[in-house]
Amino acid sequence: MTTMNGKVALVTGGSRGIGAAIALRLAEDGADVALTYRGGSERAEAVVAKIAAMGRTALAVRADGADEAAVRGAVAAVVERFGRLDVLVNNAGVGAVGPIGGTAVEEIDTLLAVNVRAPYLYARAAAPHLAEGGRIVTIGSCLAQRVAFPGAVLYATSKAAMTGLTKALARELGPRGITVNLVHPGPIDTDMNPADGDSADFQRGFTALGRYGAPAEVAGAVAYLAGEDGRYVTGAELAVDGGFAA
Ligand code: NDP
């Protein structure tokens, strides 16, 4: 395990699911962790309590990623509380399913605001605070690499945009010794995509391993990219998808 002692990480959408697993894993590796959430303060505080029980410092910040001022405020709160920021994990996201003809303009705008604009805004707000060795890791989706079934136009569009963000930012921040990478999960058992949901068997069928992943399996990949072992990896896309895109 790479030690993250002395590092400070900010995980968006860290109150549950994949984000909570990432927050806990980075804390386990030694980092102090701030996490954002939109509405679920009880679950956010439960993650904070678990991190505190590990002997690390944690902070939960309510911040809707669709709100630019809230994003700026969240980054400012982290820097004020911890005095530094080393790792940004752009994890918060929302799903959408349905044919393109049935998508209302408001639905398009809302999803793009959370899945595309927010990671951009977080990177913009965090970049000035990141020092040499800093990390940005964004959570994309296997649907950015292989759209195996219809009904995913809006969601796949939003996640594919993270490739551009990642590669362009890797070029921009590389000269400062900061890496920027993208992790593409496959079907992962969370509130967003429960392993006993209506479409779970259908999704399982597209993976090579024939199973859902656990949030901790995605967190392990993020920990590698955020840690010292990932220092020469940048602008990369890492599929943690059970072979969904194979
Ligand atoms: P969940 O729905 O289980 O959790 C979402 C998290 O994001 C919660 O902490 C939630 O906070 C937060 N969040 C949602 N909207 C906002 C917002 N507008 N502003 C701030 N925080 C917000 O999702 P997952 O853990 O399943 O997904 C995490 C990421 O992984 C997403 O980007 C998703 O697209 C991606 N992903 C997930 C896959 C899966 O199969 N689960 C597969 C591929 C990618 P709150 O609790 O307050 O609502």
Task: Please sum up the structure shown.
By secondary structure, this protein is of the alpha/beta class. Helix content is 41%, strand content 14%.
CATH class: Alpha Beta
CATH architecture assignment name: 3-Layer(aba) Sandwich
Percent helix, as a range, is 40-55%
Q: N- to C-terminal separation? A: 28 Å
| Number of strand segments | 7
CATH names the topology as: Rossmann fold
Compute the CA-based radius of gyration. Answer: 17 Å
Structural class call reads: alpha/beta
Tally of DSSP helical segments: 7
What's the helix and strand layout?
Layout (H helix, E strand, L loop, with lengths): L7 E4 L5 H12 L3 E6 L3 H13 L4 E5 L5 H15 L4 E4 L14 H22 L8 E5 L13 H21 L5 E7 L14 H5 L10 H12 L10 E4 L6
Helix pairs in contact: 1-2, 1-7, 3-4, 4-5
The structure holds NADPH dihydro-nicotinamide-adenine-dinucleotide phosphate.
Explain this structure.
Belongs to the short-chain dehydrogenases/reductases (SDR) family. This is Oxidoreductase. One of its GO terms (molecular function) is oxidoreductase activity. The chain is α/β, with parallel strands linked by helices. The chain has one domain (about 10-240): Rossmann fold (3-Layer(aba) Sandwich). About 40% of the residues lie in helices and about 15% in strands. The chain contains seven helices and seven strands, in the order βαβαβαβαβαβααβ. It has a seven-stranded parallel β-sheet, with helices on both faces. Helix 1 packs parallel to helix 2 (about 40-55) and helix 1 packs across helix 7. The relative contact order is 0.16. The structure holds NADPH dihydro-nicotinamide-adenine-dinucleotide phosphate.
